[in-house]
Amino acid sequence: FVKKTSDRVRLVKAVDPTCRGSGSSKQIFYTLSKHEDHLIPYSLVKPVKVQTKRPVIFSPSLLSRRLIERLLQPAESSLNFNTCPPDKRIFLLDSCGPEQALGIRLESIQDVISQDRHCLLELGLPSVEALLRQGIYPIVIHIRPKNKKHKKLRKFFPRCGEDSIMEEVCQAEELQLETLPLLYYTVEPSTWSCTEELLEALRNAVHRQQGAVAWVELDRLQ
């Protein structure tokens, strides 16, 4: 990080090791993206300390419904978590066409926040920016697949879609993660080997991220 002001930083990538010793001291400015299509000179981010409980969005989004169902069980989980059912009065929309025009109202999310609970959202990554524009800073948790075929995820969540669909969605969302105006948290495949361990890893991730600073690219929201 290179300091720009007291509350903003510029992301800087270190010089490639292969360039060392060549006499070049030029800095390479780089965003968090690994993909050439999304490279920009630099990205200014600002720390935001969120006092209220932050909503949670999961990636891959195909797992959201099953994960939310499991995280709301047993009953004591509801002391920390809640969810918002889809509504036809749309605030945020994640659908493939008008026949699936369901979303979640802003008021529903704010109501869960007012109860001092994390709102588990069945929303995709495109909704993150919309939430930020409303002054809501979600926790984005990405469950990294064990391999390109996503066998580990399919083993524990077999009803989340066909193999080809899951692979397509996962690949698309990995690209979207790198373009979010908010830093996300990754759950590595080595940290869990069964559904219960994954759920515990997710609970711990929510707890840690709630206490952490949210780094936001505010310029994109203006």
Description:
The chain has one domain (56-212): Rossmann fold, CATH 3.40.50.300. Helix content is 28%, strand content 19%. It has six helices and 13 strands. The strands form four sheets. Strands 7-10-6-11-12 form a five-stranded parallel sheet. Strands 1-2-5-13 form a four-stranded antiparallel sheet, with no helix packed on it. Strands 3-4 form a two-stranded antiparallel ribbon. A hairpin with a 2-residue loop joins strand 1 and strand 2 (8-10). Residues 13-39 and 93-99 have low confidence and may be disordered.
Descriptive tags:
222 residues, five-stranded parallel beta sheet, globular, alpha/beta, single chain, Rossmann fold
Question: Could you outline the blueprint of secondary structure elements for this entry?
Answer:
Layout: E1 2-5, E2 8-10, E3 12-13, E4 28-29, E5 44-48, E6 56-59, H1 64-71, E7 81-83, E8 92-93, E9 103-104, H2 106-114, E10 118-121, H3 127-133, E11 139-143, H4 151-156, H5 163-177, E12 185-187, H6 195-211, E13 214-216
Parallel strand pairs: 6-10, 6-11, 7-10, 11-12
Antiparallel strand pairs: 1-2, 2-5, 3-4, 5-13, 8-9
